[in-house]
Amino acid sequence: MSDYLIGIHIRHGNFRTFAGGAIFLPTFDYAQAMSEVTTSTSHRISFLVCSDELRDKAEFPDLDVGIASGTSPADDLALLSRCSGVIGCYSTFAAWLCFAGDIPSLPIESGIPATNSRAASAFCASDR
Fold first, then answer.
1. Which of these, 15, 51, 84, 121, could form a disulfide with 4 (CB 3.0-4.6 Å)?
2. Pairing relationship of beta strands 105-107 and 65-67 according to DSSP bridges
3. Alpha-helix runs per DSSP H in the chain
4. Neighbouring C-beta atoms of residue 101, cutoff 10 Å
5. Tens of pLDDT along 3-43?
């Protein structure tokens, strides 16, 4: 059992071509951010991955991951808004789910380290 469930919002679909692909993030970037959050705290962290494309647990090695599959965007918004926080790209969808759930967000960008030494403090109350 984990102490915190962190939502992962992976948006690939139209982000591959939107703005010339400038805001597209490969799945590896999400997995790296997840690993950094996990190693930056003593808390047990689990992740719920929601994506607009099929995902596989093998994409997230050595992480406690559940994958939502066959869900609609509305389902994803509802699921992710119930998490302790969310990691994802900059998007209106991510902003709305954080607003709906009153949860923190850790936005990531390609080529920029996803987290820092305070990564877990974004999600784990006792690390703040």
1. 84
2. unpaired
3. 27-39, 73-81, 92-101
4. 19
5. 999 999 998 877 777 777 777 888 998 998 899 889 888 89
* Rounded distance between C-alpha atoms, residue 86 and residue 84, angstroms: 7
Q: At what angle do helices 73-81 and 92-101 cross, to 10 degrees?
A: 50
Q: Which residue type is seen at 17?
A: T
C-alpha–C-alpha distance, residues 52 and 109, integer Å? 18
Using the structure block, give the residue that is written with the tokens 């998490």. Answer: 83
Tokens of 20: 């010339």
Residue closest to 110 by CA, chosen among 33, 25, 44: 25
58: number of Cβ within 10 Å: 7
